[in-house]
Amino acid sequence: MATETRKRKADHIRISSNQNVQARKATTGLEDIHFIHKALPEIDKQKINLSTTIFSHKFVAPLIVGAITGGTSEATKINAIIAETVEELGLGMGVGSQRAAIEDKKLEKTFSITRKKAPTAFLIANIGGVQLVHGYGLKEAKKAIEMIEADALAIHLNPLQEAVQREGQKNFEGVLEKIGAIVKELDVPVIAKETGAGIAAEEAKKLEAAGVKGIDVSGAGGTSFAAVEYYRVKRKANSFQRRLGDVFWDWGIPTAISIVEVSQTVTVPIIASGGIRSGVEMAKALALGASLTSLSQPVLHAANKSVEETKNVLSLLIEELKTSMFLVGADSVQALQATPVVLTGKTAKWLKMRKFDVEGYARRKRS
Ligand SMILES: Cc1cc2nc3c(=O)[nH]c(=O)nc-3n(C[C@H](O)[C@H](O)[C@H](O)COP(=O)(O)O)c2cc1C
């Protein structure tokens, strides 16, 4: 079992690094979010404060690297590079699903390298929600946390991936109850996290009631796990599986929509992820109600190269975020979160039909 999990993880890295597994037709919806440019920003760009405190941890900027990997020697390198970079920049990171190492102790170091390289950064452990339906419990959750001395635990929800994957676990019965049962017993915050198909208001409400302390929406418009699975079976003679990956490639709730659905429904902090590719998009996600932003795919590409490349990618994003804040006259993350934005297109339409407050964002007062 552990070997199979490890092989799958190696496939994910190989495919995500070499194939285009980004959404084809789906977009994040962030293109429908517009700031109102300020010709008189009346702030000094140098004095903009990007720091923010979430989950009782101070981040130098509202940016983390989303869960990617672990379990293989290649993953160790990638995790080490990301960890070293986020430590230097004062950010945070999530590790990939720790299932392989929970099942095979020898693989623990592929994850624990992150704490070695990042003694003070915010680290997020990772287990699958569906695993809780199939035998995992408090013991495994604690093991994942201890393995990297994590500051939080992400429980990932990936029904799309499991549905499309040949060997996927397709029974999610009782998953919410299982999440609720372990959340209360852990002494780090639990974050419920999607993996590219988004979270709707109804699920967010249930997850908050179950006791999760954060929600990572991971919406559609970026990395598509249906696409990853499509390439995993592509060369094999399983045309049914291949078709599933193709048909569901763009499935999911776009990231911008998911942020609004969740932020207008719950009070726990929201992590915005899924197709965020620039500092402008980070700024939009924060203005919609997110507390942190997160990227995976672009960081994987950089981490395949070096710490310098990874640092470049993350530093550029931060500089773009700062520039966006300057152009709307927001001198802090809190000010940005209160900045007016105009919602248009499919994003505004969807949210209005679902009875969310779209005009409220545009009516916010400009400072
Ligand atoms: C190669 C790869 C492996 C991933 N593995 C995991 C995982 O093990 N656990 C998890 O919660 N998310 C996993 N993800 C999903 C990401 O954390 C993220 O939610 C998703 O890729 C959307 O962000 P992006 O568009 O910036 O890549 C993985 C993503 C990639 C690209």
- Spell out which ligands are present: flavin mononucleotide
The sequence of SSEs as H and E is HEEEEHEHHEHHEHHEHEHHHEHEHHHEHH
| Structural class by sheet pairing and helices | alpha/beta
Largest sheet: 8 strands, parallel, barrel
- What level of helicity do the residues show? 40-55%
Strand order of the largest sheet: 4-5-6-7-8-9-10-11
Strands, total number: 12
Characterize the structure shown.
The structure is a single chain. With 367 residues, this protein is α/β, with parallel strands linked by helices. Helices cover 47% and strands 13% of the residues. The chain is built from 18 helices and 12 strands. It has helices at residues 2-18, 73-89, 99-103, 109-117, 129-133, 138-148, 159-164, 175-183, 201-210, 225-234, 239-247, 255-263, 279-288, 297-303, 307-327, 333-337, 345-353, 359-363; strands at 33-35, 52-54, 57-59, 63-65, 92-94, 122-128, 152-157, 190-194, 214-216, 270-273, 292-295, 341-343. The chain has an 8-stranded parallel beta barrel, surrounded by 6 helices. Helix 2 links the parallel strand 4 (63-65) and strand 5 (92-94). Helix 14 runs antiparallel to helix 15 (307-327). Bound molecules: flavin mononucleotide.
